[in-house]
Amino acid sequence: MHISFWEKESFYNHKQVIIIGAGLAGLWSALELRKLDSTLNIFLLDKGVIPQGASTRNAGFACFGSPTELLHDAEIWGEDEMWGIVEMRYKGLEKIKAHFKADAIDFENCGGYELLDETFGYTPEALDEKLAWLNKGLEKITGEKQTYTRADDKINQFKFNSFKHIIENKLEGSLHSGKFVQALTKKVLSLGIEIISSVEVTGWAKQNDVIKVYTNNAPKLTCDKLLICNNGFAASLNKNINITPGRGQVIVTSPITNLPFKGTFHFDEGFYYFRNLGNRVLIGGARNKAFEQETSTDMEVTDVIQKELELFLQEKILSGQTYTIDYRWSGIMGFTETKLPMLKEAEPGVFALIACNGMGVALTPIMAEKAAALILNQ
Question: What is the dihedral of CA 211, 212, 216, 217, to 10 degrees?
């Protein structure tokens, strides 16, 4: 395609930074780059009409970690690394609340809960000891002496089946994923940052100090720095990016009269997660029932996972309730081998901020600060 003089001098002129992916990581990174340099020419590209992947297809949890997840992470990463990640998640949620009014993104401080069943190995006394240890570390981050409390009395109140313990975290909440990305997008556009959708980056080549970016349906673009923020899809773009895609499937029920619970809930170290969506129930996860099948960038839903989620709903959450399934979808997350977020210079001038390992809502606001500083060498 031959482009006009006008297009070359405006839409397709040389950019200082091109960002691949206009989801949460890309949008936050654009904001942080603009904060560090108000004159920077920044350009975001996304292959979808709206951002695809996980940013508008997640469960809308505003959480920073359930107890069993943090205990597991401390064993795998070490305590210092675990606390560092938790602090970034917590600060990320606080940053979201500082940037956006609650009603603009439907943010609700409804509380977070972890459910434990009979397979949980600790006695109640041992569980209390573990929670005390976690609370002591979290006090330095949240300022609260009791971030986690045992709330077993709510099992009957919520009318759940098959659970032995409930752990409550009053600092967590929920938000509307679509409105959140819309609000971020409006903020980015208001700062003169450009976004073009329906353009897929297929590769790039470096010539001297200029990076030539190739796409499926747009003229060749050039930039000084390139930032990859397309998460689970990134591995196909660069051999130095070792990331595994993970499909997260979700279902949403019809409205339920007198729904007995409200909040965000985790079970089985976060492999199952559900929340109220008004008087509906949203539930997602169960990837651990078919890991190999769910290591995919295919956005379709599958019978195996959908039936597992429906069974969990029927047997453990909504026993005896009458409802239908009104929505089904999937989103693609990105995972590293260590389960730590990836921020690196993959090759000279080409950077990657990806793989928040299912915690992108909380992590991207802070990881974007680090990405902007790395790109601009500040």
Answer: 120
